[in-house]
Design goal:
It contains 14 helices and three strands. Helix 3 crosses helix 5, helix 6 packs antiparallel against helix 7 (about 145-160) and helix 7 runs antiparallel to helix 9 (about 200-215). The longest helix is centred in the N-terminal third of the chain and has 20 residues, at about 85-100. By secondary structure, the chain is mostly helical. A three-stranded antiparallel β-sheet has the order 1-2-3. About 50% of the residues lie in helices and about 5% in strands. The chain starts with a helix and ends in a 19-residue tail after the last helix.
Length: about 325
């Protein structure tokens, strides 16, 4: 009986394996996207293109031409979408068609050669805090409570190291390690890339104060930052949620008198502040790229506002 069961199980596994050959390349491309946020955004973008072009079957993607993509781009521009949003939607399509080219399903990528909007492409639109604003923000949480000390440490990591929300939330106790006598964060970034960032002394002091006050942080695999209370599930032995970081930043920026809505302030402002401040103080842009975990230095350049500094304008060089 056991031998028969083993044979049956192997047969089922073989049949399942053979069925994988019939999986459409389009589904294969989507399944291979690892980042859940990218996956969600790309799915919406591709579905929007499907609705616009009347595609009802996956195989119809293989009949798309450059004219279809141009028409889609022009349609998006008429919707008054931002240049960055339109570029992302075209990029989603281009990634799909690149995959279809690689598996020889189509001969060329119809997105190739399609001009994309460039407005604002040379400078990021995410605002950066001034040095004084950053200092005020770091002092905003109460220093007498566990939550306040935890939040100060979190804000310091965001402002001094430019981590993404998800990267900060993933940090474990063991991700603080010594390298060449200097403490570093071992950061698990996008596409499973790992980078090491030296810990700023000011952030290190706040982290030490938080760990000294929170006696729950013991095991190496424990989350470095966890909820102080949980009224729903009561579970405290877990990582913070990235949305809670977003809400926390907005709460403290309001506390110091900044209008979140008017200035478009969110957690990403901390990342922009770290990059902008480092570049303004003569940091090597390649090192800033490494700190932020950018794959392309052109992304890092969006934070380089030195050339657009008002005091550097030629206007102030004119004399009559």
């Amino acid at each position: 009986i056991i031998k028969h069961q083993d044979q049956t199980q192997k047969q089922i596994q073989r049949q399942a394996f053979e069925r994988l050959e019939d999986v459409p390349s389009e589904i294969e491309w989507f399944a291979n996207i690892r980042n859940k946020h990218t996956k969600r955004a790309y799915l919406k973008d591709v579905q929007q293109f499907q609705q616009f072009s009347g595609i009802t079957q996956l195989s119809d993607f293989r009949d798309v031409t450059r004219a279809h993509v141009i028409a889609f781009r022009d349609y998006l521009q008429r919707q008054d979408l931002s240049a960055a949003t339109i570029r992302r939607k075209i990029s989603a399509l281009s990634a799909l068609f690149d995959h279809l080219c690689n598996v020889n399903s189509i001969r060329y990528n119809p997105c190739a050669g399609v001009k994309r909007p460039t407005e604002g492409a040379n400078e990021g639109k995410t605002p950066a805090l001034s040095g004084d604003q950053a200092k005020q923000l770091l002092s905003a949480p109460h220093e007498e409570t566990l939550k306040g000390i935890r939040d100060r440490a979190i804000l310091a990591i965001l402002l001094y190291h430019g981590l993404r929300r998800e990267e900060l939330c993933k940090l474990k106790v063991k991700d603080i390690e010594s390298r060449q006598g200097v403490l570093h964060f071992c950061v698990h970034g996008k596409r499973d890339k790992i980078r090491y960032i030296p810990i700023h002394p000011a952030a290190q002091r706040l982290i030490n104060a938080y760990r000294a006050m929170d006696c729950r942080i013991e095991e190496a695999d424990s989350p470095l930052f966890r909820p102080v209370k949980n009224n729903i599930s009561k579970t405290l032995m877990k990582h913070l949620d990235p949305d809670s970081i977003y809400k926390m930043v907005r709460r403290y920026t309001r506390k110091i008198g900044l209008s979140c809505e008017a200035l478009n302030i969110g957690a990403h402002v901390m990342r922009a502040t770290a990059a902008t401040n480092a570049l303004e103080h003569a940091a090597d842009i390649a090192k800033v790229q490494e700190m932020l975990g950018h794959s392309n230095i052109s992304t890092t350049k969006l934070y380089d506002r030195r050339s657009s500094s008002p005091e550097e304008s030629p206007v102030f060089k004119i004399e009559f």
